[in-house]
Every structure is written in structure tokens, then in C-alpha cells.
Amino acid sequence: TAALPPPSTLRGNEFELVIGSATANFTGRESLATVVNGSVPAPLLRWREGDTVALRVRNELDEETSIHWHGILLAFDMDGVPGVSFHGIPPGETFTYRFEVRQNGTYWYHAHSGFQEQRGLYGPLIIDPRGAESFAYDREHVILLSDWTDRDPLDLYRLLKRQPGYFNYNDRTLGDFVRDSKRDGFRSTMRER
Q1: DSSP secondary-structure letter at 26?
Q2: Which residues of 27-45 are buried (b: 16+ CB within 10 A; e: fewer)?
């Protein structure tokens, strides 16, 4: 399987984003990913404070999709939360998010539909200030932390709702208690716990 392309950086006021699916291999096993313009994570979007941006988002998935602009000050109907402030983008349709950028800073965007965020629909967002920066720098690095599992996100969600500590390998067990009691003594082990 070909590797997914690295995310691009998109700058300006007009953006074309295509949400689709692709096979990804992050762990040595192929899984289905939700991609934006073919990549996971989605492209870095670079806006400028005071500009009006238009983001045409085309849905090539077989299900409804959306993009939520996390932390961005905007009109409720551009917020991208289906069922709350927005109808969602049906399969095969395009929706244009259009709003004035009223702040600057570093943010992110992600899906609010199904488990698309967990499958890769998230990306960094930088809003440059209207005027000059109040500081100087030699270079800039954008670090976006995430994790990946080959498990189906819905199955994972159900599992964690039933057993919240399922993946907590650091919880102490009865075996740990017996071992610690032999090594440190019963009273000392009880006090420590």
C-alpha cells in the first residue's frame, strides 16, 4: 500500500478541503483512515486575523461529515457541530464555511461526525496577527500530538464505556500486592496503598 502523503500547508482566504477515506498503515497493519486532501493529519491551515475566510468542504465519504473550528470565534451556524448548530455535510455534497477571523493564535480543527476525528480528520490551524509579531524567531515548528489505533473507534468507545480502565496497564493487581508484601512486609505494603 502506498503511504499517505504528508500534510500540506494551505494559506490565504479561499480553501478547498476534500474529506474522504484512504487506507493507512501507521502500525504495520492497514486500517481505514478519514483523510482531508488525502492526508492524516489534515493540512495546516494558515489564516490572518481580520480576513474573511471561505472553506469549501466536499464530502466524499459514504456518511455525513463536518468540521469544527476548535476555539474559533464565529457565528453559530459556521461552528460545524451537526445537530446543534449545523446540519452536517451529506455524502457527495459541498458546504462553504465563511466567516471573519477575529483572533490570532494556534488552534486545531476536527470532525464532529461519528468517529471521523479518531480515524484522522483533525489538523492544525494557525492564525497570524494582523500586524507585526511582538517577538522575533528564526524558525517555526508546528507540533500536533495524536495517537492511532487499528481498532474500530466505535468498538473502542463501547469497550471503554463498559470498562473505563481496560487499557490501564499500571493498575496494581492482587499479584502485585502479594509480591510487594513479600518484599516490603504486609504492614508497609498496606500503608503504601
Answers
A1: S
A2: eeeebebbbbbbbbbbbbb
